[in-house]
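anyone else get weird line breaks when pasting these?? whatever heres mine. first is seq + tokens for prot A
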Amino acid sequence: NEAMTMLEGNPVDFVISDWEMPGSTGIDLLNRMRADDRFKHIPFVMVTAPVSQERDKVEQAGSLGVDEYVIKPFRSQTLQEKIHEALAKANIRGRKAVLLVDDDNDSRAAIKEYIEAMGYGPIYEAADGEAGFALLRQKGIEIAFVMSDWEMPRLAGIDLLRQIRKDPEFSRMPFIMVTSQTSIERLKIEQALDLNVDHYLLKPFRSADLRDKVEHVLKKAKANFPIERDLTRADECLLLYRWDDAILAFKQVLDIDPRCVRALIGLGIAHRGMGDEKSTYKGVQFFRKAISISPTCEEAHLELAFTFEHSRAVDHAIDVLKQATTLCVFSDKIRLHLGRLLLMRGADVEGREQLKKALEINPGLDEAKALLAGRDPGQADEAGDLDDILSGKVPATDNEEPGDGQS
């Protein structure tokens, strides 16, 4: 808030901001600046501690077929739900043993207590992936599922998952990955890329590093000025529903940078706004091209889904968002709208599952709370406490029936 006040009262050439700050984070400041026409073009440097490639890890795990994630800290009910979801995907009837792999003794003891309370046992324990895989080879015929931490010595959780998926004997073994809330928060740093953050500066850094980054972003800002100018003009045309002018302006941007995702999305929105079937089809193609260039661009997936929804092709919109959940793993908005559309289609169980996952990512997502509570999203503030909603204390919609929830 103080930074925004200073921006409003002073001419600023570039911003350098820390990530973790009291009251509001660096990503919040970047969000506000990029959404404000007065400040959206100001170069922005993010300063943060070293970050592991968490998004790459999550995408790796997704490609290897991880069954579920559990985010620390978690409630026992959340763990129970994750286990049931994982087991539902595999044929392990009659098995009750569990392989638990975690190098943290306290964490392993707590999870073991939870699992035993659910009626599973014995619990085979290992402190690293290598020992865990050896135990799996010995006890595999008894084991119902594997639960593994991510970061471990000798063989990390992702490498254990890779070994299991490669082994013909255990390739279908249900696997639950446990990771920390800190890891999830660090993933949000990657979102800054989609918001056009200009550079990262990792602590600790030398004065020469700072100088190089500043010179780089200012040079980049100067080179990008014509593009930013045209994008701003095109965005203004979108706001005024001047579709033809917007299309012309976005095309001028693509003449300079054919891979400009923002321009491709803008063209998709403008063509959709034209209203006719041919233009809508063109819009779909632009959204798909944006996704091909930037597969993790949340906005492109959402706009493509909205286009199908507005064309009354809700099933296509659902397919788009389902695919997006594998690419934008921690997008609360994608899961929110997927859950909303599934509820529209009568798939209540699946829809509520997606809404719960949206709330795991963003516990403050009032729209998801309202939908779970069976209320109009416009009355989201009246929704019950998150734990009440997730635990089922808040009643479901009147027309929800038990069973698979499919229409």
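and prot B, same format (seq, then tokens)
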Amino acid sequence: MLRPEVVERLDCPIVGLATSWSIGRKGVPLDNLEAVRTLFERKFWPFPKGKIRKSNSRASSLRELGNATYKKAPNEPGKALELYNQSICMAEEGSTDLGLAYANRSAVYFNRKLYRECLDNIALARNHNYPSQMMSKLVEREKRAKQFLENDVDNSSPSESSTTTKNSTIKSFLALSEDRRCLITTRYMEAGEKVLLEKPFVLVVEPELAYQRCDYCAATKKHSLIPCKGCTAVMYCNEECQAQAFQRYHQFECEIVDDLHLLFRGPKATRMFHVILRLFWQAILLLLEDPKKFLKCVAPAERESPRDSSGGECFALVAT
């Protein structure tokens, strides 16, 4: 490890830790601070030299690659859809490339007889500068999709009511213990049986799934994912998820998201540090917005009294 006086002279503790690791690997003398700084110039830092910016030319290339991929395997559109999603993320806000990628995605769903998804993407294409000279083609697809949808009673997504019934069945045999400190079951359970489905307080989508899942809720919704307006690395179910993510953590991560993906790559256990980082962002926001509530969350007195209704709920959220 570096001597304390050396670490103090570095720009920040994170660089100090990374430098210590580098010295061990490179064999740099512990007191050679100039060599340490040279090693950690940006050109040697294992991250991108700045944020990956949106590019219409890159978006166009990805869209064309998606077209070629879909033509080769029309019955297996997964890879093509992922390429279209990458094109959507890469397209500059307000560009025709964004509308074209949504339109291509709508064509895939039309051919797969997923007419609701097709119409969703047609609406997105119209709202994102789809070229007017090509609009007749989109209008014709929209008309046909609506006709097929009216005649196709089987082409419907699982209803919210059915999902709610399933979740309520899972919860029906759970109850609070007499002291109201834990959950217990009211019947015998088989090994491996699910007892509770609960939305996580914070989550991180693995980078390899970034163009397949919502970065906020992790739902798999390739048909309706929309991009972040500032970066090229995350997508969302809808504008609500987009707004929630930005308010909770993405306002801090947007400029460095590509660095974070590289920093936390490797074994899945290392990605827990990204989860911890997002918890940290939310703790900072809570401190700034409501200092009293923040103190209730972390005060030792509250941790010693888990049943105290004034702060127990808040601590449970942080602990989760």
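btw re prot B: Residues 168-192 form one domain. The chain is about 55% helix and 5% strand.
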